[in-house]
Amino acid sequence: MPLAPWRHPPTSALIAFALLSIALAGCSGKGGSTDTAQARATGTAACDNAALLRAQSARRTDLEVTFCGPVSAVRRERVTRSGRHKYFYVRVAPGDEIEVIANVDVMGEFPVHLGDQAQVRGRYFHDSDGRQGVDWTHHDTVGSRWPPGYVILNGVTYR
Q: How many CB atoms lie within 10 A of CB 91?
């Protein structure tokens, strides 16, 4: 019995396979996550984007989170009652970005650019007006119940 000629799968099947592969890579600890041994060696926590996504979905607030991803937008610095702050966004999943608020007066000046690979540890919040983000990304948390946070950009740590 002769074998049927091999046929290419439909384009939609190839696209679905590619999207599934990308999604699974994000869950496998690659591309935007930190190896546990590396985290122990540097005194940082392993990235857990899934925990941040669960907090977003449940509209939880005041949770300590550590997540990774590329910087997708950088906003101008602003001065608030607690000091000068940098504002930038990190892509934590396809179509999902989270605002990071970093107190430059505490952490010191640091560069952040579109496309930088970021790891952030801080407090996730979701306000009643729908605004969400991560703050308390600095080491000086005296008088706060939040542990020290940090921002790592392209392997350089800012506290």
A: 18
Contacts of residues 75-79 at CB distance under 8 Å and 24 or more positions apart, as own/partner, are 77/104
- Give pLDDT tens digits for 13-68: 444 444 434 443 444 333 344 444 555 445 567 899 999 999 999 988 889 999 99
- Amino acid identity for residue 152 in this structure: I
The CATH fold assigned to 36-158 is OB fold (Dihydrolipoamide Acetyltransferase, E2P) (2.40.50)
Rounded to whole angstroms, how far apart are CA atoms 134 and 64? 9
Tens of pLDDT, residues 59-74: 888 899 999 999 999 9
Query: What's the distance, CA 124 to chain centroid?
Result: 11
Strand 96-103 to 83-93 pairing = antiparallel
Residue ranges of the domains in the chain? Answer: 36-158
Beta bridge partners of 99: 89
